[in-house]
Amino acid sequence: MSSTHSHQPTADALVLFGATGDLAKRKLYPALYRLEHSGTLKVPVIGVARSDWSDDAFREHAHDAIITAIPDAAATTIEPLVRRLDLVQGDYTDPETWTSLRDVLDKHHSKQAVFYMAIPPTMFPTVAEALASVGLNSRGRIVVEKPFGRDLQSALELNETLHSVFPEERIFRIDHYLGKESVEDLLVFRFSNSLLEPVWNRNYVRSVQITMSERIGVEGRGSFYDGVGAVRDVLQNHLLQVAALVAMEPPVGPDARFLQDEKAKVFAAMRPIDAATLVRGQYVGYRDEAGVAQDSQVETFVAARLEIDSWRWAGVPWYVRCGKGLAASATEVVVQFREPPALLFDEAGGPTPNRNLIRFRLGSNDGVTFTLQAKTPGQHLDSQDVDISVDFAAALGERREAYERLLDDALAGSPRRFAREDIVEQTWRVVQPALNEPGPVHPYFRGSWGPAEADRILGGDHWFTPA
Ligand code: BG6
């Protein structure tokens, strides 16, 4: 296993597989627009797709995708961008597609391309091997979208196949949560504020909760989602990556390798999820969505308890939950501290102080809130909750969107915000029991917080509702 993930040369071309697909439309063209707008995009962009489109139809498609995502996008930025787009059209199994692609890259004198696979994961091996068949595997790196495999075994096999044509340092695995400023802030906030470190452990922390809730349902992605479910779609990747940033030891330097090494240690110390502390749910109406099986047992919600058996975290429960069709759209981490001794406050049956909380909001209104205790006015030594809260957009200004940052990194050759092989494998190991022994799916209504059964895993605690 290779564990180095070093900086790569700057790219001289971007090749987009799945150029007429959904991900490219929703995320990649808007991100390319933003990079073009800031003057960062300096390379030709070559789309590859099976769709039988002319160059003009392709350019119009990209144009419309940008306008849909960014209604006030500047024509003076869009026009030169879309004019530079080329389309290589052809079947991925046809050798001619690959010689045409190589010809286009030769025309641009490209030696270091980024090959971005915005295609179904089942196609990754085909595309990687076809690139090798025309020698393009030695002329760039690949970016692969999630889900990376369907379970531990398939992830191992996929890594093996990709490694047969690309070395680990030229495989960039996307988890777009790693591209979010708010998620990366977990690392900076923890390790740049020395007041946190002394209490960031099992001596002071009572529990950690991570919630990723989405109001939307599967929104036209039914046929994809019904083959995947919440465990594979977000728990194995986004939620566990967030957990690692909250749990890990300080990396010894900014180099990607140090960061990945510390995350790998968290997962190595994480026990596989105990199927007894796993609850799956499915929103009522999911089976009526287009592309979803009438008798589908696929979960649109999952709650689980994680355990990290390290000196820092042994005994602290980590509760995670994620789902679609829930009451609010939010991603939050809540760190709950132990209660202080109560004798001082034990007057006349008054309330004892509530536990302190630190709430990291990682979604659209990102920021952090410390819930502390302050004296309730009056004669008694009573305390009550007070919040010290900061909204990062207001305090720090607008930040760049995840896909823009990740595309920029992929082009610049920076692997820091991508997932390393061993980490992906470890995360599958952690969720594997949820795949082997999934248990029943409990129905829940849209607009709720998921099935009531999810409370069962908390052992007397309660879920914190996102702010
Ligand atoms: C994707 C999942 O990875 O993340 C989607 O496939 C989910 O199902 C999305 O909706 C959520 O991302 P974000 O950035 O909106 O929180």
Key words describing this protein structure:
9-stranded mixed sheet, 6-stranded parallel sheet, binds 6-O-phosphono-beta-D-glucopyranose, 467 residues, alpha/beta, 13 helices, 19% strand
SSE arrangement, N to C:
EHEHHEHEHEHEHEHHHEEEEEEEHHHE
The poorly predicted ranges are: none
Radius of gyration: 24 Å
Strand residues, percent: 15-25%
Q: Give the helix/strand class.
A: alpha/beta
Count of runs of 4 or more consecutive helical residues:
13
Assembly status: single chain
Number of strands: 15
Outline type? globular
Give the terminus-to-terminus CA distance.
Answer: 42 Å
Helix content: 25-40%
Could you give the order of strands across the largest sheet? 14-13-12-11-7-10-9-8-15
Biggest sheet character = 9 strands, mixed
Hetero groups bound?
6-O-phosphono-beta-D-glucopyranose
Return the average pLDDT rounded to an integer.
Answer: 95
What topology emerges from the helices and strands here?
Layout: E1 13-17, H1 22-37, E2 45-49, H2 55-69, H3 75-83, E3 85-89, H4 95-107, E4 113-117, H5 124-133, E5 140-144, H6 152-165, E6 171-173, H7 181-192, E7 205-213, H8 222-225, H9 229-247, H10 256-268, E8 278-283, E9 301-306, E10 318-323, E11 330-337, E12 357-361, E13 367-375, E14 383-391, H11 392-396, H12 402-412, H13 421-436, E15 441-444
Parallel strand pairs: 1-2, 1-4, 2-3, 4-5, 5-6, 7-10, 8-15
Antiparallel strand pairs: 7-11, 8-9, 9-10, 11-12, 12-13, 13-14
Helix pairs in contact: 1-2, 1-12, 2-3, 5-6, 6-13, 9-10, 9-13, 10-13
Bound molecules: 6-O-phosphono-beta-D-glucopyranose.
